[in-house]
Write a structure and sequence with these properties.
The complex is a heterodimer of chains A (115) and B (112). In chain A, strand 5 and strand 6 form a beta hairpin. By secondary structure, chain A is mainly beta. The radius of gyration of chain A is 14 Å and the shape is globular. Helices cover 0% and strands 49% of the residues of chain A. In chain B, the strands form 2 sheets. In chain B, strands 2, 4, 5, 9, 10 and 11 form a 6-stranded mixed beta sheet that branches. A 5-stranded antiparallel beta sheet of chain B has the order 1-3-8-7-6, with no helix packed on it. Chain B contains no helices and 11 strands. Chain B is mainly beta and 112 residues long. Classes of the chains: A mainly beta (115), B mainly beta (112).
């Protein structure tokens, strides 16, 4: 059973370009979470999605950032008009609701560098 | 607002020692708590998950305890090995929307 897949692993964008980060959850998982780890800072929650629904986006910056998890295909985190401050590691996690656990499993991350 | 703190921030021990990492959180209304390890430049590996109704979980040389009322969790690593060197993160799940609030991490170095 493959783990959480993220691609690309490394992404370089110039200021003003768009960045698209993809996340395929583990098989059987229908909940996806995105977290960001800025240099020298801890991991911060961004958004929680279920298929075709955004459940909690309280950690998303108000502008330029959006996320989706369509019925088919991977979850996408989209950053428009990137700035240097967007340079960070972006991690995706997934979980499957069981009777008692929402244990989250993390992908390897996408490291975004904005030049 | 939930805040999660880990002490110490960094720890260096000789191989073979038993050690304890600490995690504290300000809001005791949690659903569960997870311990992770993160290797440099890599993702997070889930080590242990403790439900709010549980007091401890064990996996191999790792034992995690939870005292919800006092807002504390500890991760005990027995007979440490150089391969245990990594950053250890604890994260609490408040349950409302499952978002994890992460601690600041403990950077562990086990010297051979």
């Amino acid at each position: 059973n493959a783990g959480v897949m993220q691609n690309p692993r490394h992404l370089v964008r110039r200021r003003g370009q768009e960045a698209r980060l993809r996340c395929s959850p583990m098989k059987g998982h229908s909940h996806v979470y995105w977290y960001r780890q800025l240099p020298e800072e801890g991991l911060k929650f961004m958004v929680y999605l279920q298929k075709e629904n955004i459940i909690d986006e309280s950690g998303m910056p108000k502008e330029r950032f959006s996320a989706e998890f369509p019925k088919e295909g991977p979850s996408i985190l989209r950053i428009q008009q990137v700035v240097r401050g967007d340079s960070a590691a972006y991690f995706c996690a997934s979980s499957r609701r069981t009777s008692s656990s929402y244990e989250q499993y993390f992908g390897p991350g996408t490291r975004l560098t904005v030049t | 607002k939930q805040e999660v703190t880990q002490i110490p921030a960094a720890l260096s021990v000789p191989e073979g020692e038993n050690l304890v990492l600490n995690c504290s959180f300000t809001d005791s209304a949690i659903y569960n708590l997870q311990w992770f390890r993160q290797d440099p430049g890599k993702g997070l590996t889930s080590l242990l998950l403790i439900q709010s109704s549980q007091r401890e979980q064990t996996s191999g040389r790792l034992n995690a305890s939870l005292d919800k009322s006092s807002g504390r969790s500890t991760l005990y690593i027995a007979a440490s090995q150089p391969g245990d060197s990594a950053t250890y993160l604890c994260a609490v799940n408040g349950g409302a929307t499952n978002k994890l609030i992460f601690g600041t991490g403990t950077l562990l170095a086990v010297q051979p």
